[in-house]
């Protein structure tokens, strides 16, 4: 009889876990509006608490442990709101560098930690991390596919003071004040330095693309001291915005990849560039999956020369592309991100490269070169997180 009771308890535990996972973190719509939200426990949703004081009933998603409401919580937050007070589910940050600590902060809005208290005595509570998005980013930019609303909230467009082709480069949001881009994007002959960054954009041709973009003026351009045009080395720069950036479901920083070795053979690139070497701009954010290669492969394509690559391909560079051709990052994608995802969570992206240069866009046996972000972590941290 006791064994049968334990079997019943186990069934209840599993049913409870399934119920929680099916509700907390799921996307929702606030009742009577077109505002997107995320299902959260009521105590974790400030907007629901504020509305309750006004007599506004929350949009219900379900229940937690049968006695706590799970409500539809509006997706608007700033960085100070992302720090959880639940010490039981946080790992120690003592041994993490500041980039990794910030990554943990940025990840919290896209991960729910669900604590399940088993009904069987003597068993410790179980903590389950639940991703809050359903994107499959390893998809089929050349040979690519359109991005979805909110899929790449760190993607930035770098704008210049010109009416002719103003969005000439890409970038990556890495904090609430800084966008990382390529050094060669920080000066143009006809339009000067970057003047604005656009975040949350999906389609330049319409305001009805399912996102909410924001433009932020650039107050300072920081180009790496080691960048010396026309050489390709140290092709990295920071753009500081004139005001603090407000995060949302469409605007959120990427994590910086801090390790030398990359435990992946594929990466994802995105940008609003050109479909082929001489083609028209796509005007839509595109994504493409690329292979990662040993730098020796790119050394064959880009041998040392006196002008642009006097030392050839070096360790601060990253080699990526598709040797069969048809997939690549093109002219308008300069400065844009090359990322990998966290195993088991397609919501969080780690920036491994900055689009630097290539030879022929999408051609066979011509991978492109990216600035290797992990080689510049100290340089970035000293300017962004101090």
Proportion of beta-strand residues = 25-35%
Would you identify the CATH architecture of the largest domain? Beta Barrel
Largest sheet: 6 strands, antiparallel, barrel
Quaternary structure state of the chains depicted: single chain
Text of the CATH class of the largest domain: Mainly Beta
Low-pLDDT windows of residues? 1-22, 77-92, 116-121, 136-140
Instruction: Specify the overall morphology.
Output: elongated
Report the total helices. 5
**First-to-last CA distance:** 63 Å
**What is the H-and-E element order?**
HEEHEEEHEEEEEEEEEEEEEHEEEEH
Strand tally: 22
Helical residues, percent: 10-25%
Please explain how this structure is put together:
The chain has 386 residues and is an alpha+beta fold. 14% of the residues lie in helices and 31% in strands. A 6-stranded antiparallel beta barrel has the order 17-18-19-22-21-20. The chain has 2 domains: 2-131, no CATH class; 145-384, Beta Barrel (Thrombin, subunit H). The longest helix has 20 residues, at 2-21. The model is unreliable at 1-22, 77-92, 116-121 and 136-140 (pLDDT under 50). The chain is built from 5 helices and 22 strands. Its main location: secreted.
